[in-house]
Amino acid sequence: MINKRLLIKHLLAHNDENSFYDKKLKIDIGQKEGKAKFLKHICALSNSNPKNNSYIVIGVKDEDNTVIGVAFFDDSKIQNLINAYLTHPPIVQYENIPFPHLPDDKVVGLVTIRATGKLTSLRKNIWKYYGGTVFFREGSISMPKVFKSDVTDVNSKIVEAIENNAQNNIEHTLDGVIDFMAKRKSLNARYKVFKEYFVVCWAGSKKTVKDEVFFSRVDIELINERVRLFFSALDEVAITITEDCFKIIEYVNLGFQNHSKYYPLEETIIHFENNASYTITTKLLFKPPKFNKKTLHHVYNTNNVLLEKLKHKSALSGKDIIDLNNLPSTYLICYLNDFKDAIDKLQEAKPYLKTHNEAIYTLCNEAIRVLRKVKYN
């Protein structure tokens, strides 16, 4: 089993960007341009590496390999995006890898691309790239190119060596458990061993509501691979554990005008097999709440006025401050009730909220995360 933190370290130490490895400061698949560039790199790496894995490391400065991290990104629907836009799509996995020097809300993103042996191309137009375009890697650059049937397999042995050097061992696992338990001691940290092989650590602030136990500020990590499976600073999470399964049900708090309710968002089941493998399955549980359209028009217009005040750095009244705290969730509710421009407004508000109030900016990221889950499902 590969220790993904070691793998990233070996990739950064062993190679600059090349035909099997790319690094990015960040990606933004919420915008059309960012989505197109991401798909281009996936396509190029898949075509240039038909017989080995290829990788994208996210959260690293290009010039000096400084690891600065990115926000936790939920991978569960990213394969749907790949399948929608690429013909003969590769198998793509996005994983969140914690590093000890990064703050709690930051990880390094690791994208693993496994080609299917068939030529990958764009299925349809996106941004400035045309449907049918085939991309390959030229050194560290992804470029459109006429397909050549004689793609030389020059990377398999190099990638195999890097992956072999990143294999996990008992010492790495024990160090990981000790580090996690010490760091999350105040959040009821615990661990469980599945199938005498897999070690899962988790922590969260516990509360009981009508005999049901929920956790907030939840952090869940598969120690063998040093992969963060789940992280949320806000939402309520229910956790169920059996001998071979670790189940998570995530709830999201939505509402406005001093009335809110928790809605089940998504169920994630990690199933551990006897053959030293595991699977992760997700199921969307979310049913968007419906509200009075007249009331929503009023809320939507109020949010737009607030956004303009933030842009122009205008003074905010006491009521404005209350409404601003609700802005991410109310834009989300508006979008779920067919105000299609609300998602664009929410994206537009992000930089202004980050400057104005870090806590509301976090709420904004959570709202966008919920939208991404719903949209790609």
How would you portray this structure in words?
- Helix content is 35%, strand content 30%.
- It starts with a helix and ends with a helix.
- Strand 10 and strand 11 form a beta hairpin.
- The chain has nine helices and 17 strands.
- Helix 6 crosses helix 7 (318-336), helix 6 (293-311) crosses helix 8 and helix 7 runs parallel beside helix 9.
- The model has no long low-confidence stretch (mean pLDDT 90).
- It has helices at residues 4-14, 32-48, 78-85, 156-165, 170-183, 293-311, 318-336, 342-356, 358-376; strands at residues 21-24, 54-58, 70-71, 86-87, 91-97, 106-114, 121-122, 135-138, 141-144, 190-194, 198-209, 212-222, 227-232, 236-241, 245-256, 259-272, 278-284.
- The strands form five sheets. Strands 1, 2, 3, 5 and 6 form a five-stranded mixed sheet that branches. A four-stranded antiparallel sheet has the order 10-11-12-13, with helices on one face. A four-stranded antiparallel sheet has the order 14-15-16-17, covered by helices on one side.
- The protein has 377 residues and is an alpha+beta fold.
